[in-house]
Design a protein that fits this description.
Two copies of one chain form a homodimer.
Chain A: H1 4-20, H2 27-34, H3 38-44, H4 48-73, H5 77-94, H6 96-104, H7 106-109, H8 117-138, H9 148-160, H10 173-186
Helix pairs in contact in A: 1-2, 1-4, 1-6, 2-3, 4-5, 4-6, 4-8, 5-8, 5-10, 8-9
Chain A binds a DNA duplex (30 and 30 nucleotides) through residues 5, 26-28, 36-44, 47-48.
DNA sequence: TGCCTAAACAAGCAAGCGCTTGGGCACAGC
DNA sequence: GCTGTGCCCAAGCGCTTGCTTGTTTAGGCA
């Protein structure tokens, strides 16, 4: 364990970034959460941006690892999507703060050169989804009239949405996954 | 037409708020977009918040009007949902900036007393969705195992997501609506 | 012409921002 | 015992923020 404090700061900063937004969170707030003064942060980090960088790059690395392993785990497109949804559910939960940052502050991060890897990684994710949807269409597993690109956008965003729900009334994260998969493959009709 | 400039400022500010976030947009930027100085804004508005207020309250008023008219237009729950999706598509397009603000800066607005009506209006929207899903379940139109509350959250968020897609590659807003309805009722399976 | 008002400008205030600086304290190795 | 190093504090710098102030300008009307 090289530096517990450093890791704490990253985690606490992530929670604040997710809660208030990256730009709206001040280094003084981050420092206060960690029990030190703002100037002391700069002993551990170059800048506020590098804290955000650490959170986002770790998140995308884990997500991409999930996707790649799902693709190599099965030949069946429907099965691959199911794997992505199920393993993704846990990974996303571990990186809840980073995902929320990505959703809320995308317009900021996507314009900063430092975070250009975000676009690259998201393109790889898109490519995997589209490849699976297309293969499923060809194989006759999915509807032949499926608009692959539109469906991808809907599904990926749907999958990333529930992360910030506080499922209070008797529904767990697993319930959300099952409801999602059911809706995905069968819709709401009887 | 009481004041063209005032309306222009609201519209331009909305675009900036949607693009950069509410807190990250400065009154100087808004003023520059309108071709005046920041101080002159305060002849038309009390504060930056009141500009945001104008955008958000107008948006929610229009959305709720859609929902109420859809409910009173049909007895069939599936038909009501379809009406909400179709009319909502146009209303959401008209209020694109306000919807984006709501999505990106929800954590900010929802904690400000001034914007407490947001919670109230969203609760009414939720009640309408849930009532229709429940009625459809009872009537045997929807799956009997449908988790009503989870489904509502997924659907409403899904419906509000595509507003910021730049549908470049040959897919229009109408295509998105059709793809959504198809996915909603039938899923992706063949 | 003289007056009134809406709408703009020019300037700047207090507060808060990210970040830097210089120094102090505890503890390691010698 | 001395010194080096890791970690932190106290103070504050330069800049930006939302907003205020006092003044100027343009146009309608008696």
């Amino acid at each position: 364990m090289r530096s517990q404090r450093r890791a704490d700061v990253v985690r606490l900063a992530g929670e604040l970034f997710a809660q208030k937004g990256f730009r709206a969170t001040t280094v003084r707030e981050i420092a206060e959460a960690a029990g030190i003064l703002s100037g002391s942060l700069y002993h551990h980090f170059d800048s506020k941006e590098s804290i955000g960088d650490e959170l986002l790059s770790a998140f995308l690395a884990d997500v991409l690892a999930d996707y790649r392993s799902a693709v190599s785990a099965s030949e069946d497109p429907a099965r691959v999507l199911e794997l992505i949804v199920r393993s993704g559910s846990r990974t996303l939960a571990r990186h809840r703060a980073a995902l929320t940052m990505l959703q809320n502050d995308w317009n900021y991060f996507s314009t900063q050169p430092r975070f250009s890897y975000l676009r690259k990684d998201l393109r790889e994710i898109e490519a995997i989804w589209i490849a699976q949807l297309e293969r499923g269409k060809q194989a006759g597993v999915f509807r032949p009239d499926l608009n692959v690109r539109l469906t991808y956008r809907l599904l990926r965003d749907m999958l990333w949405l529930p992360i910030n729900w506080r499922h209070g009334s008797g529904s767990s994260a697993d319930d959300v996954v099952e409801a999602f998969l059911r809706l995905l493959f069968d819709g709401i009709s009887r």
